[in-house]
Write a structure and sequence with these properties.
Elements: H1 5-17, H2 23-27, E1 34-35, E2 38-39, H3 41-53, H4 55-58, H5 78-87, E3 89-91, E4 94-96, H6 109-120, E5 130-131
Helix pairs in contact: 3-6
Protein name: Cytochrome C
InterPro entries: Cyt_c-like_dom_sf
Organism: Mesorhizobium mediterraneum
Amino acid sequence: MSPWLIPSVVVFTVAAGFGAPSQAELAAGKFYEVVGAKVDARTYNGFRRYHGSCNHCHGPDGMGSTFASALVDRLPTIEVFRRNVRDGVRIGPSVMKGFADDPNVAPYIDDIYAYLQARADGALGRGRPERLEN
């Protein structure tokens, strides 16, 4: 077997495992895929990352808290979301630190957005979603 064949298969498998959205989904502005109550790998990872880093302030499932606003009520555009998460936000006395240097958040901003977008669109309910099998 050619040594070039194995890395190609590994790269394809890894890329497919992250649940990258299709061109049609990106064109429609949707970063998630929900089939029944199951979600793609990206959205599932976004759920995990959100609940590992964001829910402490923004509440479980993006519903908000007394400390920070709900994200599912007024989800910003992806560009604004990326900037806010990377650089942080200051609005009057409210301050959110930036996560540009956080290895548990920065590489996964689009995944977190996919999860929140599915929640904001009503395509995904509260609680831990099930993952689609690839």
